[in-house]
Amino acid sequence: MGDEYLAVAMLWLFVFIYSVAASIDFGTGFWSMFYAKRRHTKATKIANRFLSPSWKITNVFIVLLVVALITFFPGATFTLGAVLLIPGSIVLLLLAIRSAFMVYSYAASKHRVQLSYVSGITGILIPGFLISVLPITQGGFIAVNASGEQLLLGKLLSSFSFYAFAGFGIASTLFLSSLLLADYSRAADDDDAYNTYRFDAIITGPISLLMAFLVLLTMDFEANWLLENLLFYRSWLLLSVCFFLIGYGSLFIKRNAKIGMPRLAVIAIVFQYLFASYAYGNAHLPYIVYPNVTIESGFTHPAMFKALFITYIVGFSILLPGFIYFWRLFMTDKRYVKQED
Amino acid sequence: MDEVLISRSLFGTTMGFHIIFATLGVGLPLMILTAEIIYQRTNDHDYAIMAKRWTKTFAILLGVAIPSGTIAGVQLSLLWPGFMEIVGKVIALPFQIEIFAFFLEALFMSIYVYAADRLSPWMRIISLFFVALGAVASAILITNIHAWEGTPTGFRLVNGEVVDVDPWAAFFNPSFFVTAGHVTVSAYMTGAFVVASVAAYKMLKEKKDTKVYIFHRKALMLGLIIGGIFSVLTAVNGHESAQYLHEYQPEKLAAAEGLFETQSYAPLAIGGFTDRESREVKYGIEIPWALSFLAGDRFDEVVVGLNDFPEEYWPPLFVHTLFNAMVGIGFSLLFLSIIGFYWRHIRKKQFPKWLMWAFVSAGPLSMLGIEFGWIFACTGRQPWTIYRIQLTKDAATGADAIGVIFFLFIGLYILLAIATVLVLHFYFKRHPLEKEKIGTIQ
Ligand code: HDD
Ligand code: HEM
Ligand code: HEM
Fold first, then answer.
1. Where in the cell is it found (chain A) (predicted)?
2. Residue extents of the structural domains in chain A
3. pTM for this one?
């Protein structure tokens, strides 16, 4: 296997990590807003306690994605730059408003609720637009004129697949984040918040699964090449559905007089996404943008790849203790998770 | 307007906006770290409160620095795909290592802010140190790419194909250290003067010798001392940057100085406007021989003039004004810190009002210096994106509809600028200094 497969595998791994982290990040922001006015639950407090230290790190991952894409596959920049100019700019605008207003809402206690509406709503739209990158790279929405490739925006906006993907992005964001918050509230021994988030997960889970099937359906008539490839990996998809059932089911298991096993649910659902995105990623190969750019045609200079690969390994090894320290301080230290205020 | 011009305007605006928050993101951690160390050594609680309040400011500013930087990074790929294609093959390392600097800063910033009550004094200083390190490393690494645009090395271009790539030779391109040094020291200088500005302003509004007044005077002195030290370093290193231009980008230096004739014993033109028609600087002051000496440390150094280059490769001539303004600001602030030091420690007197207002202006002025310096450095490179390798128009995207996007982003920056000022204002109004336990040690 060539270096470009190693590169695309790393890129895939980053995309996967980001999509889990970002789902949790944007979803948590949404729930924090959703429960901001209900005084009787501590759901907002739990969401904020999780969100405040973690959003910056999630944001670095989006930069990491862009950097990994252009440094591993610089040959794809002309096409991607042109076709993603509009969706990319929309995401950037939303992201800037969302991050800034979230920080403002922590600082301005008087207007906290209003400010968190801005950040919650802009935040939940981001996954919807972000995932629209996928239908674009699947082909069919790009035309070529004298000055290069152009995105057929009207065609995209009137296509079924754009909405199926966007719906899937938003639903799965809400599902995954409510699961994680349920688990976090369980760790904080906050039954009230736990029940709230468990309920949200029970609602959003089936919706996200339904949306995933809709996405497959739209591929049938809008990106048939991909569906054919995907069927080749159908056992992975089946495995993914099985893990959904395990995760969803574990919300109903009774143990020690408490209903649901949120930790198991989070892990199972992460595996559900892992298998599904493994299948999707493999089926997408060798195309980065169908049919214009492949991983071979876009690949960087081999000397550069070697240097990049080594610095990734060295960099992450050096930073690992920092990540572990962070995790212990905010995810497992009971003094933080359970604090009263 | 054509699409390339809009792309240039959009990217320039984004950078001009990001740089305000980014520079403070580099400069403030140094001030916080210094205050925290002074507190640990002297036990003067005022410094702990300074560190706390500056950290709050810093956390709010980061809420804009991070998304605007994310915009900058993504726009670089969206607007300049031709540039990024070569970057991806040749100078990808700093971009990638910068990610680790961002992680470092984000991790320890969260630890310092949200776990402060659970950290030992030592861990607080270590966390802050990593925040400061992460911030300055991101600045240095992104500047590395900018330096490489001026002195591109580590590859050859054969029929438009990139060959013979040596990533580390590109990384250690000739102007890397000088440029990174200049950006670093000027950011520290700016962070310190901004602190001094705010402190001076608060002192003007306060009765003399109250606890609040004394608190602000401590902050002012800290700002002036650190600002003074770094303004000397900025000037020394700026001089070296200019010598690098003389060696590596002579037409940029010529445009900066408004020099048309190639000559030894070249004069230095200060002020005035460069006139394209008559090929001279109008209404400026000329200091004979000075430019030769500044460029090459000797009066008979030959300095290349613009006439030696085809006019289509001239940088825009107004960079002369930007350059003068930056250098002027540098020297004014240097003198200002010397005067402040002299007044307080040698004459041992209270600062008079006019001097206090001069201190108030120091922060905005140094921020202007940063803006002028960057616009000079990037616009002075025109028409090249990568010096003598790639023209800006060949780097630009072919996509249309950038005009609408340009206005959306301008609207965003205005919104964020106003909101940030309001949030800072209301935050400190609700948390006045009087409510803190200040003045335990005088
Ligand atoms: C507070 C800000 C500030 C101040 C007071 C100065 N500079 Fe500066 N200068 C910058 C902030 C800056 C900057 C914004 O950081 C730049 C833009 C690009 C760069 O590398 O640094 C810069 C660029 C820059 C360049 C261009 C480098 C290039 O294009 O590659 C030169 C030649 C100088 N400076 C020289 C000076 C001199 C001789 C100064 C005399 C005091 C001076 N600067 C003060
Ligand atoms: C020399 C000028 C610059 C300085 C001093 C500077 C400094 C900074 C600082 C201090 C931050 C906050 C870091 C953090 O907390 O994560 C930041 C963020 C960022 N900057 Fe800049 N920057 C500069 C120019 C640029 C340019 C030209 C780009 C794009 C190519 C850029 C891209 C970014 C990105 C992507 C972020 C967000 C990182 C994150 O998500 O945490 N910066 N910058
Ligand atoms: C941080 C402060 C910066 C400011 C205020 C700034 C400003 C500008 C401006 C005004 C332009 C448009 C130039 C023109 O067309 O006349 C520009 C272009 C550009 N700058 Fe910078 N810049 C900054 C930093 C950087 C850095 C650190 C890099 C390197 C990564 C960079 C890379 C570029 C590129 C690639 C272009 C577009 C192509 C070109 O016009 O040459 N800039 N910048």
1. Cell membrane
2. 3-337
3. 0.91
